[in-house]
Write a structure and sequence with these properties.
Mean pLDDT of chain B: 88
Order of helices and strands of chain A: HHHHEEEEHHEEEEHHHHH
Helix content of chain A: 55-70%
Mean pLDDT of chain A: 88
Structural class of chain A: alpha+beta
CATH architecture of one domain in chain A: Orthogonal Bundle
Order of helices and strands of chain B: HHEEEHEHEHEEEEHEHEHEEEHHHH
CATH topology of the largest domain in chain B: D-Maltodextrin-Binding Protein, domain 2
Number of helices of chain A: 11
Shape of chain A: globular
CATH superfamily of one domain in chain A: MetI-like
Largest interface: A-B, 57 and 60 residues
Largest sheet of chain B: 5 strands, mixed
Helix content of chain B: 25-40%
Strand content of chain B: 15-25%
CATH class of the largest domain in chain B: Alpha Beta
Distance between the termini of chain B: 70 Å
Low-confidence stretches of chain A: none
Shape of chain B: globular
Structural class of chain B: alpha/beta
Number of strands of chain B: 14
Radius of gyration of chain A: 27 Å
Number of domains of chain B: 2
CATH architecture of the largest domain in chain B: 3-Layer(aba) Sandwich
Number of strands of chain A: 8
Largest sheet of chain A: 4 strands, antiparallel
Strand content of chain A: 5-15%
CATH topology of one domain in chain A: MetI-like fold
CATH class of one domain in chain A: Mainly Alpha
Low-confidence stretches of chain B: 20-29
Oligomer: heterodimer
CATH superfamily of the largest domain in chain B: Periplasmic binding protein-like II
Strand order of the largest sheet of chain A: 1-2-3-8
Distance between the termini of chain A: 44 Å
Chain lengths: 383, 346
């Protein structure tokens, strides 16, 4: 009996303690809000927001609701995180592999890159890219065309937009291409396992990916036109580009800073992963006659990935959370639009901050879940 | 068993500490703020992160400005010393939360008095210390002379969390002009971005435009357009629920304005004690018991005038002499053609 008490009582007390603290905090907040005549509730979400947002992936204007403003902010956060995750992964893998290069120059420049970018606070890097870029970039009317049709200016990067006709036919063709590639791969694997014959799957895949959509242009009535950015005069000295798509400098600076900063951490994960595979594996693979490419693809990488994925997941999570620094340079992410302007206009601090916190938690848990799934998929299958 | 008792006592002790803290916040007593201020020995005042003329700190950390003077007046009235103020610089986004959560006791930060702010979020506006309106600044070379010349696609730099954001939408929407709002959290960032050419125009309260223009790399290349697109009565704010504290702040501000009306200033205040005019005598604490209503002594208003000065002195020192807005415009006394008009102190 005494043992049971000793075992469970402290745990029950600990749980009780946590519950009481939360209860106390809630009651305390409630009492103080009542004293000051502040209402608690989420009714404001359906009210008209009456403010505009600079950059939005969905239709939005000041006559839409706060809930839609939240969605605008959320999508902008996801956009900048998604783009930055892709860039930081590509850059991270390149730098990580470069650090293991036998070439003195490549190895050391990669090491310098990592040490430089990961040891400067991210906020400073964001400010640097934003203000340095703003100062250095030309005004719209003085901008030179990049690749003939795009313009990098202080007001943003203007690129042509695509105007499709019969887009759905094109998309079906793309889908058909992907399905046929999967079928082809299965067939090739089967052929290799049963008859020991190898066919160049990669080359065939590329060919399918090009030919099928091309057919849709020739026979499916699909057409694509580009709308080019045109210079327009706003006043005697101020110009802007109209038409096409404009990427605001805030987005570009944020993606640059986030990708460069996080890529250094990814690079270290990649390096650790590759170094973590024992040398014997490589030598054994080479001795059975695999080419260096095959050694990397079939022997080293599958083992290295198991080491690389978990810490890289952390970096993706960090990147997503770090994207909230966007507010410093006017990129309208969740924090700026919802926990900033909307909070100020409604005064619903507790509600809005809790929603924002829960949203980041959900994004992070989703990323973690996806990466865990991928990790499960590539881990050693023990039979 | 002894271990268990020890664990239990530590839990109990932790609770005791927690609840000891909570009693202070839970009880809403009258003029608790004044009591705490006296106990603490300084007034906790929320100001801007640097807006010349309103609240701005110099290199050695001395705050000046007409918003700062309101807090100094309250310190002079309640603590007897106008220097006993702790200033907390706040962004527009942080300011109301800082006040409602009790981090500061007065918010004197060029804040616009609006219905929703007054009624909705647990704040009370006590008066107006500057009548302002929103305007636009553009580059002189643009040739733009009026807001009617703005075209579709104009990019506009401004501050986050202000009435400016809402006014700007009303303005452009009602004229059917599409615009690009570029919204920063700090005023310095807005100035830097506008200066770099990111935006065609910079919009905020006109006093703010005048003050921020001095921070641009070439102030003379920029001009504030004549139109005013909104009413922006700026004034000090307190938390709801302490009406005595609210009154102290309100009448500290009113004292400064009324002192100017009656010609009482920091240098002649002592002599005014022997004035023939009872209104003036009340204003310098020589007649009546005005301070008693707030739980203050009778010299509270004399100290404000002597240590901080009247509204006119404060305006001249902070806004006129610094070249921000030499012309007082609506912020002139009602007797001189302005709209500054405060209830009588009696």
């Amino acid at each position: 009996m005494n043992n049971i008490i000793k075992k469970f009582l402290p745990q029950i007390l600990a749980i009780l303690f946590v519950v009481l603290i939360f209860g106390f905090l809630t009651i305390n907040a409630q009492t103080n809000m009542d004293n000051r005549g502040i209402d608690f509730g989420f009714g404001f979400l359906s009210q008209e927001s009456s403010f505009d947002v600079q950059f939005s992936l969905i239709e939005y204007s000041g006559s839409d609701s706060y809930a839609r403003a939240f969605l605008v902010g959320l999508l902008n956060t996801l956009l900048v995180s998604f783009i930055s995750i892709i860039f930081c992964t590509i850059l991270g893998v390149i730098i990580g592999v470069a650090r293991l290069s036998s070439n003195y120059l490549i190895k050391n420049s990669a090491a310098w890159y990592v040490e430089f970018f990961r040891n400067i606070p991210l906020l400073l890097q964001i400010f640097f890219w934003y203000y340095a870029a703003l100062r250095a970039l030309p005004l719209p009317e003085k901008a030179n065309a990049w690749f003939g049709v795009t313009y990098m200016t202080v007001k943003g990067y203007y690129i042509p937009s695509m105007v499709w006709e019969n887009l759905n036919v094109f998309l079906y063709c793309g889908l058909a291409a992907i399905i046929s590639i999967i079928v082809l791969r299965n067939y090739a694997n089967n052929l290799r396992d049963t008859k020991g014959k190898q066919i160049p799957v990669f080359l065939y895949s590329i060919a399918i990916l090009i030919v099928l959509p091309l057919l849709s242009f020739l026979f499916g009535g699909v057409s694509l036109e580009f709308e080019l950015p045109q210079l327009k005069k706003l006043s005697k000295i101020s110009y802007i580009y109209e038409g096409g798509i404009s990427l605001p400098p805030e987005l570009i600076a944020l993606v640059l800073a986030l990708s460069l900063y996080t890529s250094t951490f990814v690079a270290e994960c990649v390096r650790a992963g590759i170094e973590g595979v024992s040398k014997g594996q490589k030598e054994a693979a080479a001795s059975v006659g695999l080419t260096p490419n095959q050694v990397l693809k079939l022997v080293i990488m599958p083992q290295a990935l198991r080491i690389i994925i978990p810490p890289t997941t952390n970096q993706y999570l960090n990147l997503t959370k770090n994207s909230s620094l966007a507010a410093a340079i006017a990129y309208p992410d969740l924090v700026l639009v919802f926990a900033g302007t909307a909070l100020m206009q409604t005064g619903k601090a507790i509600e809005i901050v809790s929603i924002t916190m829960l949203t980041y938690l959900t994004i992070s848990l989703t990323i973690a879940a996806i990466m865990n799934w991928y990790n499960k998929k590539i881990e050693i299958k023990e039979k | 068993m002894f271990k268990l008792v020890k664990q239990l006592t530590s839990f109990v002790a932790m609770f005791a500490v927690l609840f000891a803290f909570s009693t202070e916040t839970m009880a809403a007593k009258k003029s608790k703020t004044l009591e705490n201020t006296k106990k603490r020995g300084f007034v906790r005042c929320g100001v801007s992160q640097g807006l010349p003329g309103f609240s701005n700190a110099d290199e050695s950390g001395n705050w000046t400005g007409i918003d700062v003077d309101v807090c100094r007046a309250v310190a002079a009235a309640t603590l007897g010393d106008a220097t006993k103020v702790k200033f907390t610089p706040l962004s527009a986004k942080e300011r109301f939360t800082a006040l409602t959560s009790g981090e500061i006791d007065i918010l004197s930060r060029n804040t616009t008095w609006t219905l929703s702010r007054d009624a909705d979020i647990g704040l009370t506006f006590v008066g107006v210390n500057f009548y302002d309106g929103q305007g636009f600044m553009v580059r002189k070379g643009s040739g733009i002379k009026s807001t009617s010349e703005f075209k579709n696609g104009t990019s506009v730099c401004t501050n986050l969390g202000t009435t400016t954001e809402l006014n700007m939408r009303d303005f452009f929407d009602s004229r059917g002009i599409s615009y690009e709002p570029v919204v920063f959290e700090k005023a310095d960032e807005v100035v830097a971005a506008y200066d770099a050419g990111r935006c065609d125009t910079y919009t905020t309260d006109k006093s703010g435009l005048a003050a921020q223009r001095t921070k641009l790399s070439a102030p003379d290349d920029h001009v504030v357009l004549p139109e005013t697109i909104s009413k922006e009565p700026l004034g000090p704010v307190v938390r709801q629920g302490d009406s005595v504290w609210e009154d102290i702040v309100r009448w500290s501000l009113n004292t400064m304005i009324e002192a100017e009306e009656y010609g009482v200033n920091s240098s002649n205040a002592d002599m005014m004690k022997t004035s023939n005019n009872p209104a003036i005598k009340r204003l310098v604490g020589a007649e009546g018991e005005l301070g008693a209503a707030f739980g203050l002594d009778n010299d509270w208003n004399l100290r404000i005038i002597k240590q901080v000065g009247n509204y006119g002195e404060s305006y001249k020192r902070n806004i006129a002499d610094t070249g921000i807005l030499p012309d007082r415009g609506p912020n002139e006394l009602w007797t001189k053609g302005g709209i500054l008009y405060v209830p009588p102190a009696r």
